[in-house]
Amino acid sequence: MAERKLFKGNEAVAEAAVRAGCRFFFGYPITPQNEIPEYMSRRLPEVGGVFLQAESEIAAINMVYGAAGAGGRVMTSSSSPGISLKQEGISYIAGAELPCLIVNMVRGGPGLGGIQAAQSDYFQAVKGGGHGDYHCIVYTPSSVQEMVDLTMQAFDVAERYRMPVMILGDAVLGQMMEPVVLPDPRPTDAASAGWATTGARDGRAPRLINSIYLKPDELFQHNLKLQARFEQAKAAEVRYEAVNTDDADVVLVAYGTTSRVCRSAMDRARAAGVRVGLVRPITVSPFPYQAIADVARTARALLTVEMSLGQMVEDVRLAVCGAAPVHFYGTTGGIVPTASAIAEEARKIAMAEVGK
């Protein structure tokens, strides 16, 4: 039976993963996601699973590769610099067509940066932070409940397309507490998949998991296959939320924690007579290009808001393709934008556009 409990974001992700059938976790500590491995170290043994704190992030992601190759539902989590260290392994996992869940609770950078919330890992997550032509499916939750729901969904989606799925959160979402409804545990048997290397003792043909293709034609065809699979995801997995966009003069575009602030900014602006709407991407890979293009046909301008100096705004501009002006408002260094500042920026844009 589904349960309603008060959960911290990091712990909610961990519990949702267990209920989704995750039985393997490999990771390494880094703030602000440490509650995820801490929770998993206690919870996984209760359900017959395996938790292992690896000697490094590099070791952890390669353990993920091994467990995924054997058909296990497996995840890892980290925060910005730790995800950077995992990038080679993520590329290997993508090249080997293996499903897994990677959670990034983003902190400020570059370098060691700070431990406060940021959204400056967007390029890394969406554009393929590792080497080669590959894609991850990337979810951007904006609440603890959505972190639960998307984590539950992520394992199924990863197995459906045989590619890594990432939850792109941030320090605010990981540390905040909200009431959530936890779904019932789901029985899974990923090891029965037709690609899992579970041993050929039953007489079946041996299986090989591999990401090296020394013949150019074979590598070319392999990359085409990976791209075709992502095209399927683009057709079926795009998710977004649109609020008050039908009559909006200015449409805010934001994800994650920033979208929560933008919702408050939208309400403030409308109370002051400025028609502001909001588009919130829930998947940023694949990105909701068409949804934003549709909004750009009726809005006077769009305002992309990020906790970065401008990353997702490039995809917004691609989607709009010149149909309307695209403005940007960003904060960095772990500073969360305020609703009042965003509402004022939207007001200025609306006044300038109406006056043209």
Question: What does it look like?
Answer:
Helices cover 41% and strands 20% of the residues. The protein has helices spanning 9-19, 35-43, 57-69, 81-95, 122-126, 144-161, 171-175, 216-236, 256-271, 289-296, 312-320, 339-354, and strands at residues 3-8, 24-27, 50-53, 74-78, 100-106, 137-139, 164-170, 177-182, 240-243, 250-253, 276-281, 283-285, 301-306, 326-330. The longest helix is centred in the middle third of the chain and has 21 residues, at 216-236. The strands form three sheets. Strands 3-2-4-5-7-6-12 form a seven-stranded mixed β-sheet, sandwiched between helices. The protein has a five-stranded mixed β-sheet with strand order 9-11-10-13-14, with helices on both faces. Strands 1-8 form a two-stranded antiparallel ribbon. With 356 residues, the protein is of the alpha/beta class. It has two domains: 3-195 and 211-236, Thiamin diphosphate (ThDP)-binding fold, Pyr/PP domains (Rossmann fold, 3-Layer(aba) Sandwich); 241-354, Rossmann fold (3-Layer(aba) Sandwich), CATH 3.40.50.920.
